[in-house]
Amino acid sequence: MHLTNISLAHFRSFSETKVTFDPAINIVYGSNGSGKTSLLEAVFVLLLGRSQRGAADNVMLRENQAFYRLEGEILSGDKNDKVAAAYQKNGRKKLTIDGLPVRASEMFRRYCAVSVAPEDIEILKGGPSARRAFLDMYLSQASPDYLAVLGDYQRALAQKNAFLKQERVPDENPYDDLLVEYGVKIIGVRRKFLEALKAPVADIYRRLASGQDLTVAYTPSVTAPSNDIEDIKNSFRLKLRQYREKEKILQAALVGPHRDDFEITIGVLPARAFGSQGELRSAAVSLKLALFDYLKEVRRVTPVLLLDEIFAELDDTRREQLVANLDKYGQLFLTTASEGPLALFGKARTIHIENGGITEK
């Protein structure tokens, strides 16, 4: 699968422009603030209907403009899809494939992309919400069923929180059964996913960081004596009963996958508290590249890989290790302040961005 071209109108710093891409390596270079990251964001939005940075549509709209529109062609197998994403100011976003409106879930079902960027460090050192956002974004690509269950859970959670804000809340919460029903499915998928990533993440990090050890551990809100579904359900119900009065006082649901977390350890110390900038960056890159391999295997399609300023905080050894392994990926987008690593430059399409203008080579 790869994106053959993209047209941008009033997206971020771009007025109107079109870019064609190589099915393999594309190096996007230019000075800081020129729009390199915005081009990668446009690619991600076109593929999956949302920003990899979690940006709202009105934020991605060019200043003083009423709409943005992205169009492109995605070659997947023997199919060439014409895809568009358009947003009207103070309105709703519209996604289309071959001119027909589709939901964002259809984009997740058809296409696949992994973004590696400086802000990924927040997955390691930020709060639990950053790690949950990572899980939800990429597990939704891995499994349409996960995306559907996540939507059901989030609706039940919103209903429970609204219920808890009523003036008089009875002892029994009518939404707890729904949280248990959907929540145990989310917990099961997240556990399986993080278990599958453990060894690959550790292996990639070991190569990037010259032999250092890294581990990933899931810390769900609900812990059970085993991974058996009935055990998890019973533990979930028990914890809900234990937290019932506290939830009524705080008027918020305190138990369930919306409180999940996972921890990354480098050596024997938690990365969040003790990792250096270089270690955190290498760990974040390792996590995303292991995720790429996971999605490639479970989806049986090669995701588009977006590497935003990947070399900015890596030392020479880590850069060389990373470049040596880039050939195994499919379509690759790499941003850099210069024309890119010499090892890649000769076999890549180069795209120069300056002040919202694009020059292709």
Describe the structure.
The structure is a single chain. The chain has 361 residues and is an alpha/beta fold. The protein folds into two domains: 172 residues, Rossmann fold (3-Layer(aba) Sandwich), CATH 3.40.50; 184 residues, Up-down Bundle (Glutathione S-transferase Yfyf (Class Pi), Chain A, domain 2). A six-stranded antiparallel β-sheet has the order 2-1-4-5-6-7. It has a six-stranded mixed β-sheet with strand order 8-12-13-3-14-15, with helices on both faces. A three-stranded antiparallel β-sheet has the order 9-10-11. Strand 1 and strand 2 form a beta hairpin. The protein starts with a strand and ends with a strand.
What's this, in brief?
The chain contains 13 helices and 15 strands.
Largest sheet: 6 strands, antiparallel
Q: What's the helical proportion of residues?
A: 40-55%
CATH architecture descriptor name of the largest domain: Up-down Bundle
Radius of gyration: 22 Å
